[in-house]
Specification:
Blueprint: E1 14-21, H1 25-34, E2 43-44, E3 49-51, E4 54-55, E5 61-67, H2 70-78, H3 82-94, E6 101-106, H4 109-119, E7 127-134, E8 140-150, E9 159-167, E10 183-192, H5 200-207, E11 213-214, E12 218-222, E13 227-231, H6 233-240, E14 266-274, H7 277-286, E15 292-294, E16 297-300, E17 309-314
Parallel strand pairs: 1-5, 6-9, 10-13, 14-17
Antiparallel strand pairs: 1-6, 2-3, 3-5, 4-5, 7-8, 8-9, 10-14, 11-12, 12-13, 15-16, 16-17
Length: 315
């Protein structure tokens, strides 16, 4: 009897972090602190942007991103820096607060770039950069990164990239991972569009996943460490009470019967796993944070300094 052929598939990519444009890092720090997060010191990029990150115990993190020097950022974009170009475009179209990018970890950004080109989802040239940093003890060093971008030009307000850590000194961040709200990891990411399934191939390519789980109003894609949900408009309303831009009337629709100006994919929500829901709810209540209880989770809608829906769920 002949042996069965063995097929191997590349592993799904691992979610690394979320890029959250903010108007001001101080405002973001105050908002995130009020939500029970411990926020790291400010960091600067060499191309006009700055951040103040929230690190979680699973290795994922949030990156609130502000404009430190508008002139430097614009010049970097003019020279082909897709990170700054997409940040500027997002702010121009959506304002200073939001959720612009989902980032995956990688060991080979160059290979990822080639895959994105082949799939028809390249978001532009690879970006190499280095930046200095100072650890908690005051020691300074330099870290180097390589980014590969994925974009769907039907969705100008959402992009993905992979991040290769070419040179990163070992840093103990354990003290920054102990959050008062009990958050330990990112459980999932929620994206939506009025016809969200239109973008399934794009998200599959970015996450390096072969197939998705599909039901009437949702497409679920399993990254290595979290679930990426791609919701239709009705599901977004039912789940979070958020209405997406309405379809245009029949006279304004294109050949496919859809309004051309309101169909783009957007990043909407981050689902956090927390150790103890009672602890999390008590912290939010005592801080005067408005939240809703939905499907067993605590939903906190965006506010200045917090551009995405945050959902706290039991581990």
């Amino acid at each position: 009897m002949a042996a069965m052929s063995e097929f191997s598939f590349p592993p799904p990519r691992r979610i690394d972090h979320c890029v959250l444009p903010v108007a001001d890092l101080g405002m973001a720090r105050r908002r995130l602190t009020s939500l029970g997060f411990l926020v790291a010191p400010d960091g600067a990029h060499p191309f006009g942007t700055a951040n103040c990150c929230v690190y979680l115990a699973d290795g994922t993190f949030l990156e609130p991103l502000a404009q430190a020097d508008d002139r430097d950022e614009r010049e970097a974009a003019r020279r082909g820096n897709m990170f700054t170009a997409r940040d500027l475009a997002y702010r121009y179209r959506n304002g200073e607060e939001g959720f612009s990018a989902l980032v995956f970890d990688t060991e080979d950004a160059a290979a990822d770039h080639a895959e994105f080109v082949e799939a028809g989802f390249s978001g532009g040239n690879i970006l190499d950069f280095s930046r200095g940093f100072t650890d908690a003890s005051g020691k300074t060093d330099k870290a180097s990164f390589r980014l590969a971008f994925a974009a769907d030009w039907r969705a100008p307000d959402c992009f993905f990239f992979t991040c290769q850590r070419v040179r990163v000194p070992v840093v103990d961040r354990s003290a920054l991972q102990m959050h008062g709200n009990g958050a330990t990891r990112i459980k999932g990411i929620v994206l939506a569009a009025p016809h969200g399934s239109d973008f399934a191939d794009f998200v599959l390519a970015a996450a390096n996943v072969a197939s998705a789980e599909v039901d009437r109003d949702a497409t679920r894609i399993k990254a290595e460490n979290a679930v990426i949900e791609l919701l239709e408009g009705r599901a977004m309303k039912d789940r979070f009470g958020v209405s997406l831009p309405a379809d245009r009337g029949p006279a304004d629709r294109g050949p496919a019967g859809r309004g051309p100006a309101d169909q783009g994919l957007r990043l909407h929500a981050i689902r956090f796993g927390v150790r103890e829901m009672g602890q999390t709810e008590a912290l939010l209540r005592n801080a005067g944070i408005i939240y809703e209880k939905r499907d067993g989770g605590l939903v906190v809608h965006p506010a200045p300094g917090q551009g995405a829906i945050f959902v706290f769920e039991a581990e």
